[in-house]
From TrEMBL, chains A, B:
Protein name in UniProt: Trk family potassium uptake protein
InterPro entries reported for this sequence: Cat_transpt, TrkH
Keyword tags: Cell membrane, Ion transport, Membrane, Potassium, Potassium transport, Transmembrane, Transmembrane helix, Transport
Species this protein is from: Saccharibacillus alkalitolerans
Key word Ion transport present: yes
Taxonomic lineage: Bacteria, Bacillati, Bacillota, Bacilli, Bacillales
Transmembrane segments: 15-33, 45-64, 76-100, 131-152, 193-218, 230-249, 295-328, 348-371, 377-395, 407-427
PANTHER family in the record: KTR SYSTEM POTASSIUM UPTAKE PROTEIN B (PTHR32024:SF1), TRK SYSTEM POTASSIUM UPTAKE PROTEIN TRKG-RELATED (PTHR32024)
Membrane disposition: Multi-pass membrane protein
Taxonomic superkingdom: Bacteria
Amino acid sequence: MAIVVPKLKFSPPQILAIGYATLILLGTVLLMLPVANTTGRALPLIDAFFTATSAVCVTGLVVVDTGTFFNGFGQSVIMVLIQIGGLGFMTMATLLALVFQRRISLRERLLLQEAMNQGSVEGIVRLIRRVLYYSIVIESVGALVFTVRLAFDMPVGQAFYYGVFHSISFFNNAGFDLFGHFSSLTAYTADPVMNLAAVLLIVLGGLGFVVLSDLADLPRKKKLSLHSKLVLSTTGVLIAFGFVVILLFEWSNPGTLGRFGLGGKFWGALLQSVTPRTAGINSVDLTSLHQATQFLLLILMFIGASPGSTAGGVKTTTFAVMIGAMLAMMRGREDVVFFRHRLGRDRILKALTIILLALALIITVAMVLSVTEDHDFMLILFETMSAFGTVGLSLGLTTDLSTFGKILIALTMFSGRVGLLTLVYALKPKKDPEKYRYPEGKIIIG
Amino acid sequence: MAIVVPKLKFSPPQILAIGYATLILLGTVLLMLPVANTTGRALPLIDAFFTATSAVCVTGLVVVDTGTFFNGFGQSVIMVLIQIGGLGFMTMATLLALVFQRRISLRERLLLQEAMNQGSVEGIVRLIRRVLYYSIVIESVGALVFTVRLAFDMPVGQAFYYGVFHSISFFNNAGFDLFGHFSSLTAYTADPVMNLAAVLLIVLGGLGFVVLSDLADLPRKKKLSLHSKLVLSTTGVLIAFGFVVILLFEWSNPGTLGRFGLGGKFWGALLQSVTPRTAGINSVDLTSLHQATQFLLLILMFIGASPGSTAGGVKTTTFAVMIGAMLAMMRGREDVVFFRHRLGRDRILKALTIILLALALIITVAMVLSVTEDHDFMLILFETMSAFGTVGLSLGLTTDLSTFGKILIALTMFSGRVGLLTLVYALKPKKDPEKYRYPEGKIIIG
Ligand SMILES: [K+]
Ligand SMILES: [K+]
């Protein structure tokens, strides 16, 4: 997989990681500038670094309030970082190449394959062209809806600016908002237009471009790929499950859904069920949720959204494969079968590896933070999970983080975005050759 | 696997589950009797049921204090329940058969195979004979050491009674103690004799009789089985890891290790590292531990001890296989290799299934309890994990449990002891025949 370039030798994952890191550094410098915020003083390096990482990794954890601290220039920098980070640095670079009609080389296709996590090189270029197209169309429609709705509450110019910012932020599952004082969508808990638009943008952004592309081809091809079927069904089940449990747990909680009528309860439960996959906006006060509901969000954040999307987490397909493997074992079957197709054994191993690596990282980070930060463990675990899943939901720890804590959470966001496996391969790109096979041994399990 | 007996048809797992349930009911009746406790009044049904389940499932979660509430008769009932539950109902039945020189039939061997979780029928009978031998020898030595040590603190007769009770309780990883007022070993934090004896009893009990048998054969055979090597190395790594992290986190915590010298710190860290596998005794106040340390105990309790032992949890080998699968994946290898032997794919699937089923059960129970019990989620999760792993450590929830909570925790202990897979097979004993194999499909993971 290693590719020779003049003098230096980088693997695609390494180039990907370096690309994201460079973008974060650039963002840090811009956000530090006194002209980027409303105070006129320079933002401390660590806070600028944290904000840039959060934007590039489309997380949405914030140490300063985006709406009140940053001015138009600062907010625009964040918006651009979100858009580039969301579409993916590598995808973006290729899009530029496409725009300039340059021929795509095999090497560039391999880089793209890594960035999009696609199984085959074929069709990658066509997919990338569509990424730009879909993003523009969906984000434009979203911006239009938000603008019309917000024009009832604010001047049309501001409504348009808000519309564009939030459409980009929500579709890229970035979780940044301009509503001020860390309020996110809490002023719109029962608002059907805001919620419907937000939910659709988040879900579409979280399905992944491969699935969107497949859906667009549906009228012509009359069938979906196995991957798309699995993503759509898993996403549907997760949303429905979260919706029902949140509704059940929070129905009469005066701090959250209890004070709303049926409409507010419906939209509140739906948005909070959708947001851990991995938007990071919220329309109720998360700290007022029952601890069981917070724990449910924790699990949903861990699962996250789908591969090749703008979102983080271990991914819906990984989760589905684990469940499929469990069901197969319980039914005494040898194969993991979805929609009349069995999965290769390597898929199960990869899913397992991702889940274990993610768990190990999250637990380690949370334990270290519980030593450096003087806060409840649940709060710390929630924040760590949110950072790893690039979700952006917080029970309030972000603004209290020590400098060390900010750096650690920023690095966790980076790992979550670039992908653990990519990072592991980047650190250890050479495979040892498998010399010979050992005889099979017997052990007792469970 | 289903075996025909006159008129009724039970699979070995079903017989196993029924055996444990019968023992629990018998214990409940005995512990309810007014003559079993020091108050002279009948213990409420639910509390007797909970205590009997806790004893049979060698868990050690208690709603009434064993040392002060029960009298000699009640404590003896608990001790017998622990011994029978620990050695395993089925093992015990066969031991009786052996004692009476009855021939062991194939059917009885199959039942034993299920109970001992052994891969082959061969050697089972020999193993069972050893179970009784090892238990008597190890428990006798343990009782002697405790008696001598405790004779310095109390009359010799009481010291002997305490010695026998605690040796049985600790070797079977039951976690019951007579020291009163839920104090467990907190009066002996820095005591070398008490701690060394306790640690050895717990570790030996948690290795599993297969490994003990293998170790006894070591001088003659000069080699250990793959299973024993894996159990011993995983147990060693877990104890060392827990020891170092606990020492690090609690070194200067005035509520736990901070008030002790080097000896107390050493023994305190060691005992608390060993006890989640799955003894359930404690020598420091668990509620005073840092939350990060409590979380570490939570993870260690989830892993638990080794298969075929007196302990619960998902088991050390299950954990080792998961880690092995992850490392193989990361190194680009196709096989999971331990000690120059590769593992069958079915081992990985079984390990994965056990872990996922356990997680699903624990999370579901904890979420239900967080609705019915008015307590911190961490407390509830800890209690649920402790019940499932049949560990018996508690942050104090047990005595506050509602009747519903007691029933749910008792059922969780039962699932943890009988084994989730056994339970699942017991509920669904018939395998669907695998009619044909589906073509392989492609999806994107992570
Ligand atoms: K996000
Ligand atoms: K126990």
